[in-house]
Amino acid sequence: MSFSSRNLQVKNIGTYIILSAIAVVTLFPLFWLVSTALKSQTENIFQSPPQLLPSQPTFENFVSVWQSNPFGQYLFNSTLVAVLTVGLNLLFCALAAYPLARLSFPGRDWIFIAIISTIMIPFQIVMIPLYILTVQLGLRNTYLGIIFPSLASAFGIFLLRQAFMSVPKEMEEAARMDGCSELGIWWHVMLPAVRPALVTLAIFVFIGSWSDFLWPLIVIQDESLYTLPLGVAKLAGTFSLDWRLVAAGSVISILPVMILFLFLQRYIVPTETGSGVKG
Fold it and tell me: What dihedral angle (degrees, nearest 10) is formed by the CA atoms of 46, 47, 49, 51?
């Protein structure tokens, strides 16, 4: 084995060790959460040194949480809100990003700069006027009221604009020569061509909507409209802060996000733009 090959092998081993250490540090909180959720009431979760694995694993905590609280309703609410948020966010962001990327009109660049500048504004600053507007529109205690602040995002517009700009102009010109309208080009050419960017944005929006706690807490008072984060927070008071049950509720709340990511991660791969033309 040559010196260069041995040096490369040492570097690869070092890289694997570093990545493995990062993975362990990242996954340990999730491992501890699942372990706590599986521990029975007879086990001391605060013992020192801590016991990493439950001595008598049980699903009793999950059953207790599900039966004692309307977690089925919470799950339905979170799913409905997240799906609607993703769909509307992709629609409005794509509609806004397309002209900013492919059309020429006065003030286009300044409009884009103004949109991007809003990323620097913390949500806490606009929260009160946004709440007042939500109340005035009659959206308090409604699903649409939860979705309202996330109908579009500056990050989504930026991401899709950059994706649209990478589409070759030849595809757009060919569609226009075939008599396709601007809306038709957007639908039949641009959207299929930037599918990886759409999937990436969908994952970010879904995770943000699914885990959002502050805004639903402000705009929702009816418990039948609670999302999973509000339902998990309610567990602390319902069970006098039994961390086994809180952990079980947390595991239930994060499972859909993990399943979604595992299902969609294979789509977050750049594909050939030429395959974007359909019909």
Answer: -80
CB 150 within 8 A of CB 126: no
DSSP letter at 186 equals: I
For residue range 55-90, what is the model confidence (pLDDT) as tens digits? 888 899 999 888 888 988 999 999 999 999 999 999
Residues in the chain, how many?
279
DSSP 279: -
d(CA 24, CA 97) in angstroms, rounded, equals: 39
Retrieve residue 167's tokens.
């589409």
Q: What is the mean pLDDT of residues 254-277?
A: 68
Structure tokens at 107: 């003030």
The confidence score (pLDDT) of residue 1 equals 53
pLDDT digits (tens, 9 = 90+) for 202-244: 999 999 999 999 999 999 999 999 999 998 888 876 555 788 8
First to last CA, the chain: 55
- What residues have CB less than 8 Å from 189, skipping those under 6 apart? 167, 171, 172, 175, 180, 276, 277
pTM: 0.84
